[in-house]
Specification:
By secondary structure, this protein is α+β, with helices and mostly antiparallel strands. The protein is built from eleven helices and twelve strands.
């Protein structure tokens, strides 16, 4: 059976079953944004690995080497943020076509260091190998978190609120501008491309949310809101109900959608690569948590909907209609 026939998540479950006998019984393995391994005295090492392939995850020369280095690290740090972990180390492997310029590689690391220095991360090693093409980037990051504070995808219950740390859809708007030749305001174009090329992982926000003790489940929004919420639904055996009027569509996404003749909500629901945190909290904890978050970060938290008993993904529209939702964005296989 081909991967395209069963899907990425089903294949991951098969792999997890095969390697289950080697799992660290005191830690967390396959199935969350990062693995957790016990270190000492309740401290755990959080590890995440991601790969970007030219022509699949990025386009050359559509993205600069510095932006590629920045984004490659940002995507991995977002996984640590989703666990509430403080990042410490990054390891980078590059598969490079023979004709790659040395300056491209150095610029890649210059872009990566702009983010590494911001969060005090050591780029501690890696590998360079030849590739017949395409160019591929593999990054592994490690961080630390107290086991009792670690955020996991499991732990949510029906009735809890579904929340996010920021607005959605700007990165998808940037990708749309890369793929389609269309008129667009210069400031909007710049903001959309920045959101796509240089996403800000919510590292500090993840650590803060983990310490709050109010979050019951969390992950990052990398593949798209509707695809990622299904991960939380499946592991917790519940459904999700969104309210259209509460979904924070980024103003940049609205502007680009208007120029492209698309619905702004599509960017927010299906776009992906927003790298905001998606998490659940009990309803009675949200007001206090959101007030403290606003005071600390100067930005609000957004409650988009709630988890439900029935295993369905639905939305109440602005007109009060109930709709079944299906993910229509990018799939790996």
């Amino acid at each position: 059976m081909k991967i395209s026939e069963i899907g990425e998540q089903a294949l991951i479950k098969e792999i997890a079953a095969l390697v289950a006998s080697t799992a660290d019984r005191d830690g967390v393995g396959i199935g969350d944004d990062a693995a957790l391994a016990r270190f000492a005295d309740g401290a755990y090492v959080a590890t995440s690995k991601d790969m970007l392939v030219e022509g699949v995850h990025f386009l050359l020369p559509g993205i600069t080497a510095q932006d590629l280095g920045f984004k490659a690290l940002a995507a991995n740090l977002s996984d640590l943020a989703a666990m509430g972990a403080r990042p410490r180390h990054a390891f980078v492997a590059l598969a490079l076509p023979a004709g790659t310029e040395c300056e491209f590689v150095l610029d890649f690391f210059r872009g990566m260091m702009q983010l590494a220095e911001k969060y005090g991360i050591a780029v501690s090693g890696g590998d360079l190998v030849a590739s017949p093409g395409p160019l591929a980037v593999s990054v592994t990051v490690q961080g630390e978190v107290r086991r009792e504070q670690a955020l996991l995808r499991r732990g949510a219950r029906p009735g809890e609120l579904i929340c996010t740390t920021g607005s959605l859809g700007a990165s998808a708007a940037g990708l749309t501008l890369l793929l389609q030749d269309m008129p667009c305001d210069d400031k909007v174009r710049a903001a959309a491309l920045k959101a796509h090329f240089r996403p800000e992982p919510r590292v500090r926000e993840g650590i803060w949310l983990a310490k709050s003790g109010a979050v019951t489940a969390a992950m990052d929004i990398s593949d798209g809101l509707l695809k990622d919420i299904r991960e939380i639904m499946e592991v917790n055996g519940c459904g999700a109900l969104f309210y259209e009027e509460k979904i924070p569509v980024d103003p940049v996404a609205r502007a680009v959608a208007a120029a492209a003749g698309r619905l702004p909500l599509d960017f927010a629901l299906h776009g992906g690569e927003d790298y905001e945190l998606l998490f659940t909290v009990p309803e009675n904890a949200f007001e206090g948590l959101s007030g403290a978050y606003l005071a600390h970060f100067g930005r609000p938290l957004y409650a988009l909907g709630r988890l439900t008993e029935e295993m369905r993904l639905q939305m109440v529209t602005k007109d009060g209609k109930w709709e079944e939702l299906e993910f229509a964005g990018y799939r790996h296989f």
